[in-house]
Amino acid sequence: MRAVGACGLAVLLLGAQVAGAWGPQGHRTIGAIADRLLTPAAHGAVLQILADDRDKFGAPSGRTTLEAVSVWADEVRGTAAERPAWHYDDVPVCGAADKARYCPDGQCNSAQIERLSAVLADPGAAPRERNEALKWLVHLVGDIHQPLHAADNFDHGGNRVSVVLAGVHTRGHESLHRAWDNELVQLALHEHSRQRPPRDIDALASEAARLEREVGRGDPESWARESNNLARNVAYRFPGFACNRTPQGVVVLDPAYLADGELVVRERLLLAGARLATLLNSILQRSPAVSPRKSR
């Protein structure tokens, strides 16, 4: 991975198609990129769907952008709206498994993106259902682009792997999963705040659109395969990795690993933002923004 660069990563992604989620900064960056790539019609539809948006307590949120609602699916943890299984496609990194094994009854990320897309596209669905479908889609399209959200080594997607990042100050040991959610995002975006997108978001949106044209739009199934491939080839390429076994000690992620991780994270965030916009443009340009049924 060190020698391949951006074009090499795109080739790796194309090969993949045929062969707890980003932190707030990652999700808001994805949402902010998508906001900038929406067509005028889709942007207008988003404004209408979010016009009466509610927070996890049911109070008016005032949120009107994809960036603003991108973390809602994490904020509802501990409430009746929580759906933990929707955030992942736990595809093995060693060997293979039928989808029914890691997605029983459609309770996984890729299946829910398909289902929620249909809800959002349905003009007969209740306004609140379409509102929450939109918010889930913004979040889940981001999640499926995080390599460790589409991979598992009997370690809960890297959550049981304890790591330290060489040369990076953290509050003690992190899990491998958390490092990909947060520290690698900060390194990749050169933005120290864990809560906001980088300041050059307009330039990133333009780059994201170009990258999507190069790699392709794909679909939820191919996005999961890409992420699983990157987990096998990058995220789980740490010292002492063994199939179906969690390291007993603390794994040191060296500078070479971090450099590869930064490259992957940056491009996954950009692709997620561009693909989210493409998905919403497709749905919202052919479907009325507001249901004819009375708002609840």
What does this structure look like?
With 296 residues, the protein is mainly alpha-helical. 53% of the residues lie in helices and 3% in strands. It has twelve helices and three strands, in the order ααααααααββαααβα. The chain has helices at residues 5-18, 24-37, 40-49, 66-69, 72-75, 99-102, 109-121, 127-144, 176-189, 201-215, 220-235, 255-284, and strands spanning 162-165, 174-175, 251-253. A three-stranded mixed beta sheet has the order 2-1-3. α2 crosses α8 (127-144), α3 (40-49) crosses α12 (255-284) and α9 crosses α12. The longest helix has 30 residues, at 255-284. The chain is globular, with a radius of gyration of 18 Å. The model is unreliable at 1-8, 13-19 and 289-296 (pLDDT under 50).
Keywords:
296 residues, mainly alpha, three-stranded mixed β-sheet, 12 helices, 53% helix, disordered N terminus, disordered C terminus
